[in-house]
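Why do we bother with holo predictions? Because pocket geometry can differ from the apo form. Keep that in mind while you read this record for 2-keto-D-gluconic acid.
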Amino acid sequence: MMSTQPHILIIQPLMPQLDEKLSQHFHCHRLYDEQDAALFLQRQGKEIQGIVTRGDVGVETAILEQLPACKAIAVFGVGTDRIDLNYTAAHAIQVSITSDILTDDVADLAMTLTLAFSRNLVAYHQFARSGAWENTSASLSSKASGKRMGIAGLGAIGLAIARRAEAFGMEIAYTARSQKNVPYQRCESIEQLAACSDFLVLALPGSPENIQLVDAKVLAALGKSGVLINIARGTVVNENDLIQALQQGVIKGAALDVFPQEPVIHPALRELDNVLLTPHIASATHETREGMANNVLENLLAYFSDGKMLTTV
Ligand code: 8YV
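The structure, written out:
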């Protein structure tokens, strides 16, 4: 018997609970499972009515062009930097994101990285665990409370980071496209922001105008006691400039959750002592991922029942 469920395309593997729920409601095609993706799109592209993808993966326009009936993309995440929003707008394709659900987790990780880097957490853990403490005392770390935090991008996530930093008595400055109604200093450029920051936190989207925004100039402005924290997108930073700045002590260090070629991390970064690296896990808690999964399902169900996704960009 022919399935009457709408056909959807899943671009990359999803968490099993979400995949299972989607399978209950939709006829799921998994592009990553197709031996010959081009052939699949050619043969079955016309049947696809919806897409599920991850924020860090998006979907290529060349794929969308082969799916004339697809008018809904549910993103598991908030980043749309890998979806051509001009194309989706021009073709009346709705795009939903998991708005607000991951804000707290991402802000928590930004503060975790800030504190863990300045208080040498990883090195102390290794020191304590190895027994080295029995022979020598631990070195000193740097204070985090009361320092200057510059937040590039004061959207929901940037603002949540600022609220947390306030509780640590930090002096906060920011860049944003428009002046916000907040008691923090707004800087005209990211270079100016870097110059007045001990911690420069990147919380802006990976949209074209932000690609490689953090370059040698910005890092020089951040200076030798400055630390770069990136929970946004790896593409926002010129990685070669960053590696050079870290190697030459132009900046003190960097704590990074995101990288331009994920999941591959540049070998030079992996060797440096003045970096703290995490594998893009800012939103990866059980609670938040469950909320994100529900959001994706609800958006698709709403689209297929009344033609409108709920949390569109
Ligand atoms: C997720 C993200 O890790 O929201 C985004 O855009 O990059 C992250 O929250 C990702 O989408 C899930 O893999």
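The two ends are 37 Å apart (CA to CA).
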